[in-house]
TrEMBL record, chains A, B:
One of its GO terms (molecular function) is DNA binding. It comes from Domibacillus aminovorans. The keyword Membrane does not apply. Its cofactor is pyridoxal 5'-phosphate. SMART domains: HTH_GNTR. It holds the Pfam family Aminotran_1_2. In the C-terminal section; belongs to the class-I pyridoxal-phosphate-dependent aminotransferase family. Keywords: Aminotransferase, DNA-binding, Pyridoxal phosphate, Transcription, Transcription regulation, Transferase. Residues 11-79 form the HTH gntR-type domain. This is HTH gntR-type domain-containing protein.
Length: 484, 484
């Protein structure tokens, strides 16, 4: 056995022997029952004292890793582990981890990015926000030195509550709100509190990939339910609820991510009714109900019809306002709120006060509604542009949603077209979108994709869409020609 | 059966009947086998049509909640659930939740607060930070409009990495760092990735209560190991590691929270050695190694001796710098880092860019080291003041640690004294501390408490400590007199 020992190391020579032998046992280089070199032989080989080796073997024995058998020698005791060691960090690979699914991929950046549901910087009021924040820091630098409340800053909660009442028709008390670091964290806090191994949760199919990561990492069984023009199908929901006794439904009823579809008011009530009937929570994700293109706003949130605390209502303004700030809230009524507060405390002790106060001036000013009006206009133009290019470029085998708000279009190709392969193809041409399979939990459909029309400048959007339809048509035609 | 029906409701009359009956079944007001009123009787009682009631009963039957038996009537089908309904939110109480333990209590605020491990605002560089942040916003308002990277802002990671190298002797690459919302979130991300039901994790006894919440909410078995003057006892660690095969050790070796004790360098190496021997991670929480009172700094972090990615090293500056900002980092090497990134993405998609950039000017300026020098001086004075008042006021039955850095003193009373009761007593006199039992996982010792000497002004600290020793002595004497 060749050991690499150093007299200059922090560790004693005998500890170095122990580590190296233990490492070999852990990495299966030495397996159970194998005989170690004798103490005398190892001390000669390594040029160290008999006593040093003796001490090391004694320690290995005390740790239960080897066994000394009188008159025979020293044998490896512990059954070998799975992974073979390649480098010094590889022991980590043999440790079981709990994240079964994640949407975290460091996706390559492209010139024509249709894959991130975010806003082009020209559409955001960053200079106004920066001015307001500067004023605030001048007047009250102490906010930097103050721990935020776990539930969230009282002033910011008041402002959200007022906004909810005025703009969304929701009668929320400031005390019913918990501030979060982005809306996404709100989903995570709810899941951490409510969902555990084997619990059943219903989602729309397709759904926001982030929620699938969260639910599946909690060990949940996710049942995706198909949508029609009005949103999640109520007949399927009733059936699933009766059979599987789900704990919750996650939904994004208004301008849904990824499809851009909105749920009808009738369907919203039916979903609430099923939740009441079967004792479920509804996790209602309202990311962008302000961003409607019709003259009149979308239907009221499901929360507006809830008087039993069935709905855990989530709101965030990161995307539409300031992605560098990331403030969201959970509106929760009833005793469950206290558990959510525990989950928040256990997660990060509370959202930073600075970011909460940074959105406050905006929330309480007219500027907010003017900003949304501007966004609605700009996004509608972009949607129209996108739809007109798709319509002019694809034959009837390709279809898409025409969203009445939000940031995304859901494109459906014939079942034989893999958007995962199309994605790889487009990446090589400096263009990206979200392959649709990540929006399904177990047996994903892979002939859809999500196009976000909000991230690029108007010029890049137009050029990028022309590039996209041309790449997609090339890809489909090449497949046909090669007989796939 | 008295139903409250409204023709003005969003819901149809038959849905209202369904909800109210379903609610009674779920809340045990109606139990399995119970007979519902006949359709005719209910329609007469409630003054509504026969058909409406019929429709409601049909729906309840479809939902599997009641059963209609030909010629006999309609019976409650579902076995009753546990909790009785008191108001419309009480159905929530019957839903099993997953948070088994939490340190979130909205503790009452007192004049003499010794319970929060935080810094008096006069000790913080808030005005300097506010100025720097203002400059930055003026130069680059776009940071408000930019999504932070999931791993964290590259510039901020560079700055942390440089700080680690210069000040802590840690050779970290910026790519090995993951930015978090406070150090606490770092622990949570590690736990979410590594720890699941039944996994064994070792902590010091006593330990930081927040880590117990996190671990126990993940379903871990926490084994607390007693400390001596050098820190966690290595002999007990070896024994526990051999018997229970823990996945990780959480420790706060330098100026430990809550005891204020520091682990010797020899012990640090022994702990690392045990981790190597038994294939464990060490979660090393370095909240305040900068805040030492001796002339020379404390021993190097365990991470400094680690070349296998055994140590997940956590650093945060919220307490010592700006609690309103809350930025921390995990220094992790090896393949495990990628899993941590997934956990971060799944938790909140990344720490806000604003808060990361807000600490950046400080991290890269000399101001930082000047600030720490000032803090060391101020905290040492406070510690001395606290120790002198304790020494002058308690007899030998009460003892305490004399921390060589950090914010906390750990006070030990005779075993017969309950610091939970003492806490209640002090609260009535407008004074608070942290009762020690929250620092143990299962069978807490309840004769300790933690006093934080950093939160109050110098004047309040002195007055508060005099009040504390006087209250504690009164409490103990009253107990003796009443023969408890």
């Amino acid at each position: 056995m060749k050991l690499v020992l150093s007299r200059k190391s922090h560790n004693s020579l005998s500890d170095q022997i122990v580590q190296q032998i233990a490492g070999r046992i852990q990495s299966s280089m030495l397996t159970g029952g194998e005989k170690l070199p004798s103490i005398r032989q190892l001390s000669v080989d390594a040029g160290i004292s008999f006593l040093t080796v003796h001490k090391a073997y004694k320690k290995l024995e005390q740790a239960g890793m080897v066994k000394s058998i009188q008159g025979k020698g020293v044998y490896v005791e512990r059954p070998a582990q799975k992974e073979a060691a390649e480098n010094s960090f590889d022991w980590q690979l043999s440790i079981p981890a709990y994240l079964t699914r994640s949407s975290f991929h460091s996706r390559p950046k492209t010139t024509y990015s249709f894959d991130y549901s975010a806003m082009h910087s020209g559409l955001l009021p960053t200079i106004y926000l920066a001015d307001q924040l500067t004023e605030m820091l001048k007047a009250e630098p102490a906010i930097l030195g103050t721990y935020g409340d776990v539930q969230g800053d009282a002033l910011t909660r008041e402002a959200f509550s007022t906004y909810f009442q005025k703009q969304l028709g929701l009668s929320s008390a400031a005390d019913d709100l918990i501030m979060t670091t982005g809306l996404h964290q709100g989903i995570e806090l709810i899941a951490k509190t409510l969902i555990g191994p084997g619990d059943v949760v219903i989602t729309e199919a397709p759904t926001y990939p982030g929620v699938l990561d969260i639910l599946m990492n909690r060990g949940a069984q996710v049942i995706p339910i198909a949508m029609d023009e009005e949103g999640m199908r109520a007949d399927l929901l009733a059936q699933v609820a009766k059979t599987y006794h789900p704990k919750a439904i996650y939904m994004n009823p208004t301008f849904q991510n990824p499809t851009g579809r909105s749920m009808s008011e009738r369907r919203r009530k039916e979903v609430l009714y099923q939740a009441q009937l079967h004792g479920m929570f509804i996790i209602e994700d309202d990311s962008w109900s302000e961003l409607y293109f019709d003259e009149k706003p979308p239907p009221k949130s499901i929360k507006a019809f809830d008087d039993e605390g069935r709905i855990l209502f989530l709101k965030g303004f990161s995307k539409a306002l300031a992605p560098g700030i990331r403030v969201g809230t959970i509106f929760a009524e009833g005793p469950f709120k206290k558990l959510l507060l525990s989950a928040k405390a256990s997660s990060d002790l509370g959202t930073p006060l600075l970011t909460q106060r940074a959105v406050l001036p905006f929330l309480t000013s007219d500027r907010m509604m003017q900003h949304f009006a501007k966004l609605r206009f700009a996004l509608e133009l972009r949607r129209d542009k996108a739809i007109s290019i798709l319509s002019a470029s694809f034959d009837s085998s390709v279809s898409w949603t025409v969203p009445e708000g939000g940031l995304n279009i859901w494109v459906t190709f014939p079942e034989s077209v893999s958007t995962v392969e199309l994605y790889e193809y487009c990446l090589r041409h400096d263009l990206s979108f979200l392959p649709g399979h990540v929006c399904y939990p177990y047996e994903p459909a892979s002939h859809h994709l999500r196009l976000t029309y909000s991230l690029l400048s108007e010029r890049d959007l137009e050029q990028g869409l022309h590039a996209f339809v041309s790449l997609a048509n090339d890809f489909i035609n090449n497949r046909l020609e090669s007989g796939c």
